[in-house]
Amino acid sequence: MSNQNKPRSHEPIVWLLFAAGGMIAAMLMPALVVITGIGAPVGLIADGSLDHERVIGMLGSPAGKLLVFPLISLLFWHAMHRIFHGLHDLGIQAGLGYYRVLCYGFALLATLLTAGILFLI
Amino acid sequence: MSDGSGQIDILISRYDPERDDQPHTERFTVPYQHDSSVLDALLYIKDRIDGSLSFRWSCRMAICGSCGKMINGVPRLSCKTFLRDYAPGPLHIEALHHFPVIKDLVVEQAGFLDKLPEARPWLIREQEQALADGPHRQSPRQRARFASTSACINCLLCYAACPQYGMKPDFAGPALLALVERYNADSRDQGRAERMPLINAEDGVWSCTLVGNCSAVCPKGVDPAAAINRNKLESAKDYFLRFLKIGSGGAE
User: 10 Å Cβ neighbour count for B238?
Assistant: First the structure.
């Protein structure tokens, strides 16, 4: 088969979202887990810095929205892409088109919901 | 672990298409010493116990790439795998997974060989340099860019290890895509645009889910998983930048 007949895959679109989400999952999430999941409960974080009003105030600012929107939405793309390809690794071959819509549709829905909620704050 | 010599039980998956409906297992007991390889055991069986046993081999020194087998379920070169590490056995030898079996341990390699030309595994020049102009000079740093991928011996262990190739035989596969990277990374080559359609295809880099078994079993230290995933970035760049004509030059 000649190379020129091979149709181009559209995978790069979701793969780049997956890759960006992977960078966040690897580089930022561990720090956030340490700060919010361990630091705050055991009192390593200054009192009041993670209070509800303060966090809402941060999310109300354009910079806060710009920071949190990719943080949440890209992680969904990362997870759903990995789950979709995990199906193939698990030997599930039938109905991949259906699972593709389900997985990426969920990531898209989560992205839109994140944007909507951030917009309302 | 033993002291390095003795007897070992070997189970071999046998299949004769003229007699058998499906493969069956036969047991052999062979002597071994500290330096006996699995290939030595197969040769011992063929010479002294059952001359009908079929398997491929040639160089005995891990460079010809013909003696790959499944050894206790893991694809390995039988000349580079030692009996002492499996004593007292039993050691189970099968034909490489993911390829049709022709006889006993011999597989049909067409699934790889037929795809080989798609990688354009040769130096492509827009214009040949005249002989009088001398050789294409290459710095050690330029040579180092493809030193590891050029070590591939086409033994197909990576195909036997790859679950994606097992499920999807149209997938170009680890060795082929590492070969693409080997020529694209060569400073003397100008054929990247001819190879991009294979990289960009669904059966190219995008069928890989980075399981990584290919790199784990490679007997020559090639890292096909890394080569493939570097090319995912190249393909993603090519996908979006082709509109700006500044991409890596993939032909549509």
Answer: 22
